[in-house]
Amino acid sequence: MENTLIVLATIISTLAVTGQALILWRQTKIANEQIEMQRQLITLSENEERSKQAQEISTWVHTYEVGKPETHIMHGSKDEGSQTDFIINNASHGPIYNVILSHDDFADSRHTMGIYVIPPGRWRLAYNQTLPVDKYTFIEGKIWFTDAAGNKWHRDKMGNLAQSNYSWGKPLINLPLETKNLNIHRENSF
């Protein structure tokens, strides 16, 4: 009988230790999951903070008929042509640097310009080119830039923002950058 009690006590002790080990394992697993969730939240917060200025940068292409009151159009007249301008909106409180603007026009031509600094505000960059247009067109703008913290960004033609590894010296766009004689001025209203 005494041996039976010892065996029973040993079994109960083993079950208790096993139960405690399972509880400890489960608590460790929950703690690790919480730590991982905290890491993800911190990373998300850091990414949001890092992209804060970049979220405030946008560009679009504005096309209007030459010789007529300026209106936003998607086509021009064959005789007069159309004027294409980039609108760069820097709604942040700091400048952006090493800006590359690009747009593909209706003839599948790529036009690229580089600007060293864009201060806060809305800016119109007159791309001094008249394009004859004889069909409906849609010209899409893209921008690459470096924010005030040195992070590099790209906003594609659909407006999606992503970090980029472009280099001002060797831009992603394989056309020569036009950095001279740019007609750029602050936009008051549109």
Broad structural category: alpha+beta
The tally of helices reads 1
Tally of extended strands? Answer: 9
Radius of gyration, taken over Cα atoms and rounded to an integer in Å: 30 Å
In the sheet with the most strands, the strands line up as: 4-3-6-7-8
Mean pLDDT: 76
Largest sheet: 5 strands, antiparallel
Uncertain residue segments = 72-79, 171-181
Query: How many domains, as an integer?
Result: 2
Describe the global form. rod-shaped
Estimate the strand proportion: 25-35%
Helix content: 25-40%
CA(first)-CA(last) distance: 97 Å
Order of helices and strands: HEEEEEEEEE
Features:
190 residues; alpha+beta; 4-stranded antiparallel sheet
Explain the overall architecture:
It is a single chain. The chain has 1 helix and 9 strands, in the order αβββββββββ. The chain is α+β, with helices and mostly antiparallel strands. It has 2 domains: 50 residues; 130 residues, no CATH class. The longest helix has 49 residues. About 10% of the residues have low confidence.
Quick summary:
By secondary structure, the chain is α+β, with helices and mostly antiparallel strands. It has one helix and nine strands, in the order αβββββββββ.
SSE diagram, text form:
Blueprint: H1 2-50, E1 57-65, E2 82-90, E3 96-104, E4 110-118, E5 121-131, E6 140-146, E7 152-155, E8 161-163, E9 183-186
Antiparallel strand pairs: 1-2, 2-5, 3-4, 3-6, 5-9, 6-7, 7-8
